[in-house]
Amino acid sequence: MADASASGASTGRKNILKTLEFDTRLLGMVGAFILVCIVFNILTDGRFLTPRNVFNLTIQTVSVAIMATGMVFVIVTRQIDLSVGSLLATCSAIMAMTQTQILPSMGIDYGSGLIAPVAIIVGLVSGGLIGAFHGWLVGYLTIPAFIVTLGGLLVWRNVAWYLTNGQTIGPLDDNFQLLGGIGGTMGETGSWIFGAIAVVAAAYAIWQARRARIAHEFPVKPIWAEFVLMALSAALILGFIATLNAYDVPSRVLARSFEARGEVMPEGFTQGYGIPFSVLLLIAVAVIMTLVARRTRLGRYIFATGGNPDAAELSGINTRMLTVKVFAIMGVLCALAGLVASARLSFHSNDIGTLDELRVIAAAVIGGTALAGGIGTIYGAILGALIMQSLQSGMAMVGVDAPFQNIVVGGVLVLAVLIDIIYRKRTGDA
Amino acid sequence: MVDRTGTPLVEMRDVSVSFGGIKAVDHVTVDLFPGEVVGLLGHNGAGKSTLIKCLSGAYKMDAGEIYIDGELVDIQNPRDARAQNIETIYQTLALADNLDAASNLFLGRELVTPLGFVNDAQMEAETRKIMGRLNSNFKKFKDPVKALSGGQRQSVAIARAVYFNARILIMDEPTAALGPQETQMVAELINQLKEQGIGIFLIEHDVHSVMDLCDRASVMKNGQLVGTVNVDEVTDEDILSMIILGKNPEAATA
């Protein structure tokens, strides 16, 4: 509201942003992210923004980012989930044991194409069931989510330990490892094709939204604004892909793969990694979760319940079942994150996902999810995860001592929430 | 005049609700005919809101029966009430503050596209239509409802009850937060709805609006029904003494 009344007196630059209907909070986060990148790039003499580091940063973010999208739903409904790191470990342990012990004992040998899909399905189902169980305890037995998931934090960490006897389980199946990051990428051509599709899809979505507004005789942005938006999204997508493609596979690795096929690598042959499959998975999760949040009844009910639980109940929404669904989604996403995390390591380790609950909650909160409920975006949470990971690995590159790294990350979390509170007060968007 | 010869639209028979040891509603019977406005009066804590929440599904009765068109119905939750075309405008308005007007209006009954996605554009168009009828000053379709004034929020709550063709409408102090002009708007709306044959339970504190708007008034005190009177056969003093003293003016009992 204050936003609208202030705009008359504000500068021309702000009016352009208004015409484009940009989310100012998103712009703030993007600004913070760019600032972090530039500062670290200067401090590391340009090593931070190399294709190699961007690639690593991206694949390191995936696991936390996947869980952060689910945490948005949990926090929006005024709940919390402290058990995600432990749940990730349990799912990872289940998937590791399935592929290294259970399936081979059933006669499905190493290298069988069945191993990865069966292990993944078992993991996702386990995650979903455990999450639904949490949701049932919270929704139907009305135990506070804080307590249920605090218990879960201990329980599932040690269930994982029990399942594996505390051992490191590996190596994991080759196909399973494809989703780990560097172990599976689309290559340059595939990445460009994906990029082209993404650019067309983004432009189509913008155009379709405009047509829907015209069809219902609602006001629309000027046509140039739509084209600016399309150009911006295309530049972002293609720039990201160009960067990932510019990270070349080491020539020794390439030479080995040629040898394996009985060929000789041509002189001067290079090949970029392109988009990792794990990043593709994150993009798919982000698109689906955004669709759920904005375009489905489930998403509408999640936000309505967060805004006013009594109103949601009185409107005939089954808020108990909704809680079960939200926690079940969170569980499935923990399993997906466990898949990516263990595949990236190429084995399951006993401490996998330790402290992830804090990273995930921090990512969601830095991304603008309000702990009071009712407000939050999927893209914000992913950006929040990216900012956290950038800080962490940037500081590691600069050589900041480990204790100071965590001190800074903790401080940034508190500061981000303070800035958010001030922002909401200013815009009257309390 | 309201025709009360047929079957009542709603009959709540011998309803009791207790919270802990306290009888919030104690063997109360009220009824409502099509095209009638029945006012429910009483002090704070007299039990009128509790009674009516049994009809809207927000509370469960400990004893008693609800008949709609003479048939016994079982209302366990707000979904059951909606299935009986009972719509409620709560005193707190029961709006999700973070959502816009259209999302609130259709909450729980979203319009969907053939693919099962919510059809926001169509819901907004429908909201614009009904708001044009109810409150043509309403312009803030894109803002979350927390950005709206009390009257505008009330319009959203009323639009939600009216849009879905309610047969039985429950209004819990609909004018409590409103200015004079908006109060007038609600009064006109109530008369409009009456003409369409909708039955309305109106919970009110203000005896004068009851005298203006209602056909009958049922007065409660300490969880019990003091009595039900025809509004045009009593004075406002009669009603006040029912509320304050719990005294029933014998002659006028309906």
TrEMBL record, chain A:
Entry's transmembrane regions: 26-43, 55-77, 84-104, 110-130, 137-156, 189-207, 227-247, 273-293, 322-341, 361-386, 407-423
Keywords tagged on the record: Cell inner membrane, Cell membrane, Membrane, Sugar transport, Transmembrane, Transmembrane helix, Transport
Subcellular location: Cell membrane
Predominant location: membrane
Topological category with respect to the lipid bilayer: Multi-pass membrane protein
Protein role: Part of the binding-protein-dependent transport system for D-xylose. Probably responsible for the translocation of the substrate across the membrane.
Protein known as: Xylose transport system permease protein XylH
TrEMBL record, chain B:
ABC transporter domain ranges (all copies): 10-247
UniProt entry keywords in alphabetical sequence: ATP-binding, Nucleotide-binding, Repeat, Sugar transport, Transport
GO molecular function annotation: ATP binding
One Pfam family cited in the UniProt record for this chain: ABC_tran
TM region positions: none
Domain of life: Bacteria
InterPro entries according to UniProt: AAA+_ATPase (IPR003593), ABC_carbohydrate_import_ATPase (IPR050107), ABC_transporter-like_ATP-bd (IPR003439)
Protein's recorded name: ATP-binding cassette domain-containing protein
Annotated organism of origin: Maritimibacter dapengensis
